[in-house]
Amino acid sequence: MIIFDTTWTQNAAAFRNEPAQLVFESVNEPQFDNTDNARAAELPNEPNTSFHTVVRARREAPTPSARSCCPPRSAPPTSD
Predict the structure, then answer these.
(1) What would the pLDDT profile of 16-69 be if each residue is shown by its tens digit?
(2) Residue 24's closest CA among 38, 41, 11, 5?
(3) Distance, CA of 17 to CA of 35 (rounded, Å)
(4) Residue 56 neighbours by CB under 8 Å, 6+ apart
(5) What is the reported pLDDT for 50?
(6) Which long-range contacts does 70-79 make (Cβ < 8 Å, 24+ apart)?
(7) I need a surface site. Which of 10, 11, 55, 73 has the fewest CB within 10 A?
(8) pLDDT at residue 73 in the model
(9) Taking a C-beta distance cutoff of 8 angstroms, is the pair 19, 67 a contact?
């Protein structure tokens, strides 16, 4: 996790002033061999939690125009 955290710390610092439309993905199609499906579903939690903590810590305070890429789960669907 040290290399993962260091990499995302550097990326987040380099892009911290970019618009909110810039979106990162913590891991792309993770593969977990030699494990059952239940455990494989749990394994991304550690890097995803770390990613969220590192990237959010490096981002400047959100501006009123900043928004999440995904609406809250309780939000009703919108028609565009």
Answers:
(1) 888 888 888 888 888 888 899 899 889 999 999 999 999 888 765 444 444 444
(2) 11
(3) 40
(4) none
(5) 93
(6) none
(7) 73
(8) 46
(9) no
